[in-house]
Design brief:
alpha/beta
């Protein structure tokens, strides 16, 4: 457990915000109780250490030693010209957040179809607190052993709320741009996101996390996703924050009958990042695709930890993670498929592969199957190694220079998982970021 001195700044920030009644929705009993329970459990558990099995390969010592100040509305001066975009004009709707807070003047939500709502968490607390009260912390309930999720519950102030009502479809992607900005002192913020896809609805959400400048920031985000019966959510994320940033994202989701959750994440930034996903397949013929890529260099550290629970019969999932590591970069993949006793005819596939592009790069992989049903088709695999010397020799024998040949092989290796995304335009946008990383790398 972390020392008390590491917890104290966050506890003091929480108490100061409560005393000043500065937290959005402070008068709502359900939210007040959630926050009080969150700070209590965070103080009981402290920051997780490698002694905790799910954090075995990720050490938060550098995070604990940094004194973070709370990000406020007055710590983030950003002009609309400085807001980057991952997909540009292909985004039909764009919501911009700076240090976890929604900025209306930087956003352009456009005209949403009937039945679709995009708003900030703080605004939703004013408009429809009853709806949030019936949804927030419902999917993640019972996760008292996740201290950073509990810290988010205590200090959450804003975030993204996406609600797509029954049968509605959003044709163009929604881009949520999350800007991190710190100038004079390290800043921490705790965005809370809620995505509700009602029965038969469909949408594509693209998250773009990027830093302005090279200040030290700690983004501790939490997301709850409910994909109703027959609904389809395509959820893609690029994390490209500065080398001084800490990025932790905890996601809890459920997928209903004949519904699809299609997720992909690319991590190429941050000093330390962790993407933790827990997904429950609760309806027959629910399908989950949980894929990702990561590229780390220098001393960057990226942790992808997933749990997919097959709760009922006739569900399926496909999980593919690929990474490339150079210098002293480190990657972690921990993935578990949990098949409950009644979940007959489960079809689960899991694969982790990594390229080590230097002698000091490191990857730790821990794929798991926990199966309590007997009529299932589940498999997993994990490999790590250097580039294929035969393929490299073949390319060089055709006159391709050594560096270009290595680049082609890495792009091809990662492109196989990027191609799992539904949109060719989005595939191109993500591959472009991979190419930019390879341009800057020392490989």
């Amino acid at each position: 457990m972390a020392s008390e001195s590491a917890l104290q700044p966050f506890t003091e920030q929480y108490q100061a915000l409560v005393n000043a009644q500065a937290l959005p929705g402070h008068a709502l009993p359900w939210l007040q109780n959630l926050r009080e329970e969150g700070i209590r459990r965070f103080n009981e558990l402290g920051f997780p250490t490698p002694k905790v099995e799910s954090w075995k390969y990720t050490n938060l010592r550098a995070l604990e030693r940094t004194v973070f100040h709370p990000a406020t509305e007055h710590t983030a001066g950003v002009s609309i010209d400085s807001v980057p975009s991952l997909i540009g004009e292909k985004a039909g709707h764009r919501a911009v957040f700076v240090n976890g807070r929604f900025r209306d003047e930087l956003s352009n939500l456009g005209t949403l179809p009937k039945g679709a709502e995009v708003m900030s968490f703080a605004e939703a607390l004013k408009r429809d607190p009853q709806f949030l009260g019936s949804r927030v912390d419902q999917i993640a309930k019972g996760q008292e052993d996740q201290p950073l999720y509990q810290l988010n519950s205590a200090l959450m102030q804003d975030g993204l709320v996406l609600r797509v009502r029954e049968g509605a479809k959003i044709e163009h992607p929604i881009e949520a741009v999350f800007l991190s900005l710190a100038e004079d002192e390290p800043l921490a913020f705790h965005p809370r996101h809620l995505i509700v896809m009602e029965n038969g609805s469909e949408a594509t959400l693209v998250e773009y996390h990027v830093s302005l400048g090279d200040g030290t920031t700690f983004a501790n985000a939490a997301t709850e996703i409910d994909v109703g019966d027959g609904a389809r959510l395509h959820h893609y994320k690029l994390q490209n924050e500065s080398d001084k940033a800490f990025h932790v994202h905890t996601l809890h989701g459920r997928v209903g009958e004949k519904a699809l959750y299609d997720g992909f994440g690319l991590s190429i930034g941050s000093k330390l990042s962790r993407n933790e996903l827990s997904l429950r397949l609760e309806g027959s013929f629910a399908d989950a695709r949980v894929n990702g890529s990561y590229l780390m260099r220098g001393k960057q550290h990226c942790d992808n930890t997933t749990l997919i629970e097959h709760c009922v019969p006739d569900t399926s999932c496909c999980e593919i993670f690929k990474g490339a590591l150079t210098d002293k970069g480190r990657g972690v993949f921990q993935g578990k498929l949990h098949v409950h006793p009644d979940a007959q005819r489960t079809d689960g596939y899991q694969l982790s592969r990594a390229l080590l592009l230097s002698d000091e790069a490191e990857v730790d992989a821990k794929p798991e199957l926990e199966i309590y049903a007997d009529d299932v088709k589940c498999s997993h695999g994990s490999t790590a190694g250097s580039l294929d010397e035969t393929a490299l020799f073949y390319l060089r024998s055709r006159g391709i220079p050594y560096a270009a040949a290595r680049r082609l092989l890495v792009e091809s290796f990662l492109g196989e998982v990027v191609e799992q995304m539904i949109s060719e335009d989005l595939q191109g946008a993500f591959m472009e970021r991979i190419s930019e990383w390879l341009d800057r790398s020392t490989t």
